[in-house]
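Entry 14. Structure prediction run on the chain below.
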Amino acid sequence: MNNFLRSSLLSALLLTTACGGSSDNKSFEDISELRARAKKEMTTGPQPPPERVVYVTKEKEVIKEQATLTDSYFKIDLSEKMMSFYEGQPSAYKITLRVQDPQLQMKLTAKGLPSGAELKDISTAKNPNTYELRWTPPLYTISYDQQPPQIMTATLVPVLVSAKTSKKAETVKGLSLDRTITFNVFRNQDKPSELVLSGLDQDVQEGQVVPFSVIARFPGVDTNAPIKPDLGFFRDKNTQVVASNYLEMDGTRYVSIENVEYIGDYKWKFNLVFDTKNNPVETQKSKDGSAAAVNFTQVRLGLRVFGAFNASPATVVRVKIIRAATEATPVAPAPAPAPAPPKDPAPSKPTPKKAPKPKSPTKPKSGGK
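Output returned:
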């Protein structure tokens, strides 16, 4: 046993010297400690290294404690859990700061608001610490290739105004008071207006080129819009003139767009022509499809303005084209005038009879003896 201990000690010393180590007790154990350890290992066997104690901060519990402390001083109430704003439309949502500790006076501020938005103090004696988040999102906040809504965030920051004690003030200042709010931004939801048509009468003479216009209001669409409104005209399925034996013919063939102009307040004006001079007028047809012997052609067309995401209500236009009498246009013959009633013959005057001439007396025949 003693020989073994001596061998162990000698091996440890030789190893230390060979590695260039120092025998300073700051870096290595002294001889007595080595002897004690070797003796203990001979009786009990080698010992495991001592366990390290690691302290882990429980972040969730810290946050929970922080929230508890904050709620004991103030609360922030939103009138709506999810606030929504629409391009070009003003909106406002009420936010209330409820101070729970009577020894504190606080106010609410905001940071990270979008351009043009504000947190307005609307407090009264009856309703203190009351605010409104006001904003009119500018047009094209949401790009045309973006799927709405656009989710945005801002931060509400309660600020300490005064405290009755400095200790209370220091406690509040040490808390994390910020609260992040989320709100949605949508495109303008107003629908396009009905179409306003002017300049086109119900009756048009054949051979005329009639200018007319259509105006539509598209809320949220002005000259800066990457996609401008467009006018479409179409033929609907209703082809029979009400309470008649005639069909309504296709009117789209006579209409063309000259130009489009923006006239302000989201209104777009489409300048068109109804041209029966350069477009041959169809012959009016009866319900059975045969040519009708009339001097007009009744036409019908639908108009509708389309935007990038919506469209105006459709408007139906009906026009009667008064035809010029030509060989190509069968015209019903005018009815023959009724014959005049026969005149009674004038009464004839009686022809006066001539009086008979008186007969001359007959002479007696003379006798001879």
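Confidence is low (pLDDT under 50) at residues 17-23, 53-68, 360-369.
Filed with the rest of this week's runs.
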